[in-house]
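Issue 218. Parser rejects a valid record. Input:
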Amino acid sequence: MYTANSERYGKMVYNRCGYSGLKLPEVSLGLWHNFGDTGNYENMKNMVFTAFDHGITHFDLANNYGPEPGSAERNFGKILKEELSGYRDEILVSTKAGYGMWDGPYGDWGSRKYLLASLDQSLQRLGLEYVDIFYHHRMDPQTPLEETMGALAQAVRSGKALYAGVSNYDGPTLEKACRIMEELNCPLIINQNSYNIFNRT
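Output the parser choked on:
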């Protein structure tokens, strides 16, 4: 079992996430291409330990992170169980669903069936009873937004997620999604978008 740095909260800045009570560290660790089956497990552990030792408490995943899809959740779940289980209440784990995960019409996009099944699979891979944030990963042009937001609200009401968010939503769709979630008494707390010097959208 890993012993974390006792000074880990000394320098990190934590900002309130939207209008929620949740605070996110100024820097989070995304587990996209470095935590899949093609990665080195010792390197994965050392990246997580180094991040946590510097006050990075938010570890961001998605159902399809790998490669192979699901492997990043499985590897991070193993690290949590074997090395950091005593620190679970200090750690924020987020995951997402919205991209293709399994064959057939129910393994992609934003239906209630896909999102809730995917969350169950993510929890199994992570070895957790709940995630801190569950996101819809991308806008779905065919599923009614009310259905997608209803699935996020159901995930929170079930206790399988503490907070709901979206990712890669444009402004108008986000505004509509926020109104729906407010009516469901389950506000969205975050929209995680790509934004950098190359992508200014």
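Fixed in the parser; the record now loads. Strands lie at 14-16, 23-25, 29-30, 58-60, 92-97, 131-136, 161-167, 188-192.
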